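Morning. Coffee machine broken again, so started the prediction first thing and wrote up yesterday's gels while waiting. Chain of 554 residues, entered below exactly as on the submission form.
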Amino acid sequence: MTAVWRAVTVRADPQKTLSIQAVMGAEDQFKKPDTADGTLGLRKDAVWLRIPISVHGQSNGLWVLDIDYPVLNRIDIYLTHDKKVIQQSTLGSLQPHLDRLLHSRSHALGLTMSAGTDYDLYLRVETTGAMILPITLNKPDAFLTRALSEQMLQGLLTGLALCLLAYSLTQWITLRDHLYVKYAILISGSLLFSLFQFGIGAQYLWRGNSWMEIHAGGLSALIAATGSFLFIEQALAGPGSKRWFSWLMKAGAGLTVFFAFCFSFDLIDLSIVTAIISALGLAPALLGLPGAIAKARRGESVGAYFLLAWAVYFLTTAVLIEVIKGRVGVNFWTLHSFQFGATFDMLIFMRVLGLRTQALQTAVQHARRERDSLHSLAHTDSLTGLPNRRGLNASMAETLQYAAPGKMVALYMLDLDGFKQVNDQYGHDVGDELLIAVAARLQANVRSSDIIARLGGDEFVVMSSGLHSEQQAHDRGEQLLKAFDHPFALSEKVCRIGLTIGYALAPLDGRDGLSLLKRADAAMYAGKNEGKHCLRRSDTTEPAIDDILRALPH
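Came back before lunch.
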């Protein structure tokens, strides 16, 4: 590879009327460029470049001229020898891509030159943007190596941007968080810019579409600015953010959308779009800077990430601007500086999205904990931790619907014998401790699937499901009675109390939870009147409430 810029001389063509014959006869009109290597800055005129070439005697005849700045609109190439044009071609972004002899990403042309011969290479360049001219002469194998390396780099960066775009859109569809779609707009603008700036779009996506070649650069910048306004506004929103900040950011996004519409229909030209981007391009970051600093000072990592992203953005943008203005020379790093900076920013902003998702998940978990806590308070007895009446009702509604003759549900109403005396004699603290001990003993004497509830005072209910026979229900009640044969050893007292149990069976005694509880309660009081510390089943000769309701005429 041979960089030729040091041999380049230039001649301006303000009227755009000079021909190759005119410039070949006036070599003295060509001057050394007063700009940095590989760039002539922003120019509206056409420019002629003259490059003298002396082919080494050992070199073969095929060389590849490569101008690796795909957005140049038109490049007329003339290879001359002894004031005669021996090879002529036209390249440029506005020329049909399929007409190129080399279907490369950059502007490349094969030149056949004889060894030991001197030539003059003339280039006439005309473009609406920056006149950046990284010109090299390469042997074919060197050109292919460089072209493949750049193609792989662009493929890697484009693939990364596409993955981030797909991820953000998927998250938006899943979470319905508009911040993700605003991030997608930002990425789309940056991705379109890279596809345009480095020739991938013209090479694969919009071959021969001159409208895209004229508009893609300006539209990509306006789209990226729109996404920046929207993304930064929402990402920095929160306690302490000013209403005017949100209004200004949304107004800025509206302006960029309006200008993009105008540019799309050629109501404004590229020079106006360039001025607009120069004025509005940095506005989202500058407006968001105070909010990001405030967040960083409060220890919020979102603010620190924004400051890091903007520091890289300002640096890489400044490098590209200096190249465009002709003050910084063209090399691999300066030519790719903005693309690398934009990729870094996309990854940093993805981290911001990750932090937001984490915050949303934390908020959801907190809300669930609060909901579960409120639910527990509403359905749980605060002293024993057992379900209360509301919790029991919910469990009965779920369980009783599956009651069947072979899968009966027993509701045991339990009342403590002698609890009032203990409570009166030793005080409420001892009484509360005894109730907690009773709950623990009941839990130790039932199955894990059984439900124990405290209705209030010294009344408890045990619901046991999946019973196969009436005898099994009776045996379980007897087991509960026997559990109270032993005294309760409390922290300071030893107390002995008894238990009276009444129970009802579903579906034999009914299916309605309220009626079953009333039956069990009646049986328990019957047991109290008969001497306490006994087990009684409800009077099955009395029809259940739900049986009575079913018998009523409709």
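Confidence is low (pLDDT under 50) at residues 541-554. Going to sketch it on the whiteboard this afternoon.
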